[in-house]
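Sample pair:
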Amino acid sequence: MKSKKILFVLALSLGMFAASCSSDDNEGETIIPLQGKYNLSKTGTIVNGQEVLVDAPQNQEGCSRDYLELKLSNAAVIGDYDGSNCALVETTGTYVRSHNDLTITIGNASTTSDIMNLTNKELKIKDKTTGVITVYTR
């Protein structure tokens, strides 16, 4: 009977130890997958400490919304609906995520952004060079 109590206490202790451990490798980083297709929704900047966002002027009226698709293979596809006939132009490149940084490379041009928010419904990024905030929705 005493050995059963010892086993119980040991199992309980191990369970409590495992539950109390955490990894700080992803400090501040969300665990939502980045891959997916995001429709361009809003753009803006920070003015006097406040976010100022407007409907994305890049979206052509009467057309589907422009989009960013991030694939599992690290391919990035930017979809741009343009002109009176809403012709879709797709530009392909690559992306890399490092913690809360997202770098998209198209040809020889790269942009790195802070991931401000990533949920199942939204990706909000802020360009590290220009400070422009872009909001995409799924």
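The CA atoms of residues 42 and 54 lie 5 Å apart.
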